[in-house]
Amino acid sequence: MRIQIVMRLVGQLILIVAGIMLVPFVYGLTVGESYFSFVAASLMAAVTGGLLYYYGQPSTTYSLRDGFLTVSSIWIFVSFFASLPFYFGGVLPNFIDALFESVSGITATGASVVEDVDSLSQSFVLWRSLTHWLGGMGIVVLVLAFLKNLGADSAHLFNAEASVPRPGIVMPRIRSMAFKLWTIYLLFTAVCFVALCLAGMSYFDAINMTFTTIATGGYTPNTGVVDIYTENWPIRWILIFFMVLAGGNFTVYYAVFQRGLKAVWQDFEYRMYLLILLTGALIVMYALYMSDNFTLSASFNRAVFMIVSMQTGSGLVLGNYDVWSPLAQMMLFMSTFFGGCSGSTTGGIKVIRIIILIKSSIIYLRKAIHPDMVQNITINGKSMPQKWVQMTQQFFFLYMTVFAISALGISATGLSFGESLQCVAGILGNVGLAFGSLGPEGSFGVLHPVAKFICVLDMLLGRLELFTLLVLLHPDFWQGYFLKRRKRSYKVWQPVGTHRRL
């Protein structure tokens, strides 16, 4: 592991973020706002990024350890600097709130501590949405797409940001794939923006809703923005359509350009993703129609919108689901765990892992009956390596362990049993929605500072798929590095000539 190489890449990313910070500042000038907190934060980021870049070391080879440390450092540093405009501008009363808001934005979680979004200036509304869009596809994927001379080993960076099994990815093609993913991301962004504008949404609302929808975030330009356009069914279905798209595998979309729409149907994970969405929507629609006195049309619209929003982690709200029947609420709660497809902008466990867990459980039951049976898990006609099955099982165990520990920690701050579970489910799955005091009529600002810090950690853990951050806590990760440091220190201070005698 070479710290200088990590410093170089982290510095490059911080410099990019420093430039992006000036976008809301420039926009603010055009609408009569002048918040120099963006300039101050940008300067701090530029100086830090410049120093890291200057003292860093370029390289075209990266070890797996380099990848883990680089990705973790990038997300932590970017989250920190993204919080400075909120803090310097006095938008939020303390730094932990500013950090919560920025991490929620960068990880596309969408949970907010802002009590009244309508009180925010347009500059800060735009910055919140930009943090979503920047982190949606993945900051490291952005680096791989647009920075040259990273070499074939840059696959370690790609895999460190999202540890979902991806059959068939070849290391030398990582940069090409990253560029294609961001191209599709930009295309979806442009089409969504134009569609919302044509449907009657204002330009400012449209650009912010586009950023939050494509990134499956949750920040909106004003309170109840979806409810404002409730009667405008084209806007509602445009949002649903692009939330579903954002929850799908972007590599499948690239295949669509090569093989046509059949590429979507040929992908088993995508079919299961759509099936889970449909099943959840039907259950919620039934619950609303039978128990909550909604018309069939209203039940259908609310069920589809909220299930898609919950499962994809988009965090957009249509109506007050806090007053819905227990069956509808339970289905929404379960959806926060599912997530979208691998290679998407969503969080959660992901559909591919659910498929692997179900298939491996079925095989285990069959082996209990037929001990000598040999059967492998196949997806899309390809046999799944056993190490990926084990990695999926380990991920699920770690996910539920982090979920339990986090819920225990948050409940210790005074939050009720049910709200603690719902809070962690929404935060760890990068959904940003919960129930009760944290629901559509509430805010995460009511949380204790300790609970907010736990949420910050969970948002990062959820976005980086647990392994990338947790591996840094293992002593073996640092053992070789500190051992080499001690050896180098010994050589530096050793008196000249004592190492060789004539």
Structure, described:
With 502 residues, this protein is mainly α. Among the domains are: 1-169, no CATH class; 351-429 and 447-477, no CATH class. 66% of the residues lie in helices and 1% in strands. A two-stranded antiparallel sheet has the order 1-2. A hairpin with a 2-residue loop joins strand 1 (378-379) and strand 2 (382-383). Helix 3 packs antiparallel against helix 4 (64-88). It is globular and about 65 Å long. The protein starts with a helix and ends in a 9-residue tail after the last helix. Residues 168-172 and 489-502 have low confidence and may be disordered. Belongs to the TrkH potassium transport family. Keywords: Cell inner membrane, Cell membrane, Ion transport, Membrane, Metal-binding, Potassium, Potassium transport, Transmembrane, Transmembrane helix, Transport. It is found in: Cell inner membrane.
Strand-helix topology:
Blueprint: H1 3-20, H2 22-30, H3 37-55, H4 64-88, H5 95-106, H6 122-136, H7 139-146, H8 155-161, H9 174-198, H10 203-214, H11 225-228, H12 233-246, H13 250-259, H14 262-266, H15 268-291, H16 296-311, H17 326-338, H18 351-369, E1 378-379, E2 382-383, H19 386-411, H20 417-428, H21 449-463, H22 467-470, H23 475-493
Antiparallel strand pairs: 1-2
Helix pairs in contact: 1-3, 1-4, 2-6, 3-4, 4-5, 4-8, 5-6, 5-21, 6-10, 7-9, 9-10, 9-12, 9-13, 10-12, 12-16, 15-16, 15-17, 16-17, 18-19, 19-20, 19-21, 20-21
Task: Give descriptors for this structure.
502 residues, mainly alpha, 23 helices, 66% helix, disordered C terminus
